[in-house]
Amino acid sequence: MTDDGSRPHDWDFFVSYTRVDREWAEWVAWQLTEAGYRVLIQSDIVAGMHWAERMAAGIARSVRTVSIVSQDYLASETCAEEWQAAWRGDLQGKDRRLLPVRVVEFILPPPFDGIIYTDLFGIGEEEASSRLAAMTKSAASGRNQPDAPPSFPGKVTEGTEKPPFPGALRSRGDSESGSLPAIWRAPPQLATFSGREDLIAEIRGQLAQERTLAVTALHGLGGVGKSQLAVEYIYRHATEYALVWWVDAEQTAVLAEQIAALAPRLNLPVSGVTIDDADAVRDALRRDRSWLLIFDNAEDPMAVRRWLPGGAGHVLITSRTPTWAALATSVYVDVLSPEEAVQFLHSRISELDHRLAYEIATELGRLPLALEQAAAYLEQTRIPPEVYLRRFRARRGQMLTKGVDLAYGGTVDTAWSLALDRLRDVAPAAVFLLELASLCSPAPIPLGLFADHTDQLPSPLGPVLSDSPDPAAELDEIIGALLQYSLVRRTDGSIQVHRLVQAVVRYRHSDGRYQKRADSSSQCIDNDRLGHADSHHLTVLVKLFVNHLPADLQNPNSWPHWRPFLPHILAVLGTADGQAVAPSPSLVWLYDHAALYLQYLGQFRDAWPLFERALAIGEVSYEPDEPDFASLLGHVARALQDLGRPKDARILFERALTITEDIYGPTHIEVASDLSNLGAVLQDLGHLNKAAHVFERALEICQATYGSNHSEVARYMDNLAGVLHDLGRLQDAHSMIQRACCIAESTLDSNHPAVATNLSNLARTLQDLGRPNEARPLFERALAIAEDTYGRKHNVVATRLRNLAGVL
Questions:
Q1: Residue 439 near residue 572 (C-beta atoms within 8 A)
Q2: What does the domain layout of the chain look like in residue ranges?
Q3: Which terminus of the chain, N or C, has fewer Cβ atoms within 10 Å?
Q4: pLDDT in the model for residue 3
């Protein structure tokens, strides 16, 4: 006994942790022991000891408890007993009995939010050791030490092929010389890249500065080579990163999906909800430092800001807009210097006279993209450079007589016009394909869109492919003609057209009204406002999308088919909105299903404008009594419900129900579906008696259609039980939901999500009936099914956790 009568302490620190965070716990314990403290950690309890008694003794006979805090730690009942024992012994925190250490960023719940804690994530080992030393200031020692110090969890072990988080990526400089990072997505390096050494050095200087997050934005004219500069930088510095990930950032609606694609590469649980998975990726990156994200062709700083991970990694942005000062340091990318431009032309055409190279470069404004096109034209046609220069100047003169401002756009137009005119004579099918691709996004376009639907392609492209004994080989030849003039890029199974090439092609295919951006500082062809593109081409693309993409978006297996086409669909629909494109059921279908796809990904606000446009076009494209129109009304109504607008949703659900009843009669199963939708929105609005009546009618129709023991009957019973519960008729609700559970269990797999929904609702009713002990195992089983179905980060899992927490 001590002088004050208390029991002596055997340890200075007891390290409390859950199995997921063992690496952190062992690192912390080692640091404390090295500092001379006596430390007890779970791994010190070896064979022959009584685990529970040893842990209890450790908690009781340690001066302080260090809690390795994460979401998993707080979810553990065993860990709760450990930290609560320390907390209860020092509620005022005077003796600092409980020392929380966060190893992942998240908002701490009570009581941890009121206790001073220490963060060890997102920093280097030296800084972490320093923070730990500052937190702990007492001495004495003794514990079962390993033979060598455990590796710091913020650094991956040498040779790991696919390191997991936390802190799992290689530190800069760890990878082998010349090798690419284990996690990599970037365009191929350009063999023709030259010059720009000062800019590459400037980028490196900006990113290498010590800061929490290094963000650098490359901005300048379209076609000036910002993306190519970024590609060159990442290849030169690839060995300094464990992760390099390229994001096409022009369309904000597809940002989340590209970020979420990193989740499986980081060994993160994949929930299937894009926003949740993307947030999980962002949180994981925040905890490490050896990564580089590239947001290419970004125009909206706020959209990019949403996905910046924080932490200590690097972000590189390319953009035509200069407004990045609040978010990033800027590097202005100008046209090539006269020397660099001449050097580039000489690298492609060695026999080119220096004076001619200088004159051609000057005529092209020393714009890298235009120089590339000129070199390709000269290589392909083999005409003398002086002839090319003469033709180029003659074309410029023609454009000047039309009053076109050539400060920037005219130069580019002239550079490509020569190649397009030649191709139109020798390969008209290639020009038609280029015109279609120029109405899409600058992202890669899967070739299956054209190759799989030759019957939907008009002349001159369709007949050439249809009449060929080998359409795939014929398509390769057509693309080859475009490749020869550097008008497209080809990747595995895709073609890609630069936005400036798209702009020129669209201008030449428009009605001649050449429009430029109002922002004279950019002097850039506006890819979205180049006059009226041929509505015929837009109609062709709409039909291709409708025929190529699966309609059943409730099935997650269809989502990968939609993923690569979404940027192109959004581009086509955006152009169609400003063109004289006739309303049609196909156009409505594309708006509606693109919106449904975004809705299933959890991007409700991105989906809503498409739903709204689908409804506007549907009002004039469908007859008022068409089933497809009723279906569209239901889709838009559910979107309104998701956006918290139940009153507006009710109006559309009622319209859909009226149409369905007129078509099928009052007892058809489609009517039951519309009744169910209407009942749900009435319940949201608090019209519980009306909702109960509507649900009862839907259940009667369903039972008459399927019999009394069908899984759909269980679903309708569940709906009715829910509103009975809200009406306070708990016994009636209990009887009905219990019956629904029995039907679902007998007709569906025991781990089906619908079974989990029934179990959760039954548990809720039991809880409100004052029977929490019966409710708890049902909530726990519903949670287990949800985690097994969706992963641990899905919003459905969050709901199940909240339900279980309520009964606990």
A1: yes
A2: 11-135, 183-332, 366-533
A3: N
A4: 43
Superfamily of domain 11-135: Toll/interleukin-1 receptor homology (TIR) domain (3.40.50.10140)
Q: What rounded mean pLDDT belongs to the chain?
A: 81
pLDDT single digits (tens) 734-758: 999 999 999 998 998 888 888 999 9
Judge contact between 271 and 790, C-beta under 8 A: yes
Are 685 and 646 spatial neighbours (Cβ–Cβ below 8 Å)? yes
Q: Report d(CA 108, CA 117) in Å as an integer.
A: 10
The tokens for 233 are 């930088």
The number of beta carbons lying within 10 Å of the beta carbon of residue 753 is: 16
Predicted confidence (pLDDT) per residue in 18-52, tens digit:
887 888 998 999 999 888 888 988 765 543 444 45
C-alpha 710/C-alpha 306 separation (Å) is: 45
pLDDT in tens, 67-100: 999 877 887 777 877 888 877 766 666 677 888 9
3-state secondary structure 621-637: HCCCCCHHHHHHHHHHH
| Secondary structure of residue 11 in the 3-state scheme | strand
Q: What is the pLDDT of residue 391?
A: 81
- Beta-strand runs (E) in 386-470: 445-446
Q: Which fold has domain 183-332?
A: Rossmann fold (3.40.50)
Q: How many CB atoms lie within 10 A of CB 518?
A: 8
C-alpha distance from residue 788 to each of 97, 273, 280, 552, 752 (Å): 38, 14, 18, 23, 10
DSSP, res 334: -
Bond prior to 111 in cis (omega within 30° of 0): yes
Give dist(CA 281, CA 304) in Å, integer. 15
- Kindly state the tokens that stand for 89: 């012994």
Q: What is the pLDDT of residue 8?
A: 63
Specify whether the CB–CB gap between 175 and 242 falls below 8 A: yes
pTM: 0.57
Does residue 74 contact residue 41 with C-beta atoms inside 8 Å? no
For residue 647, CA distances in Å to 83, 300, 429, 641, 653 come to: 48, 33, 52, 8, 10
Q: Does the fold of domain 183-332 match that of domain 11-135?
A: yes
β 98-102/489-491 pair status = unpaired
Closest of 284, 282, 283, 325 to residue 301, by C-alpha: 325
Q: Does residue 528 surpass a pLDDT of 50?
A: no
Verify cis geometry, omega within 30 degrees of 0, for the bond prior to 666: no
Token pair for 181: 């990072």
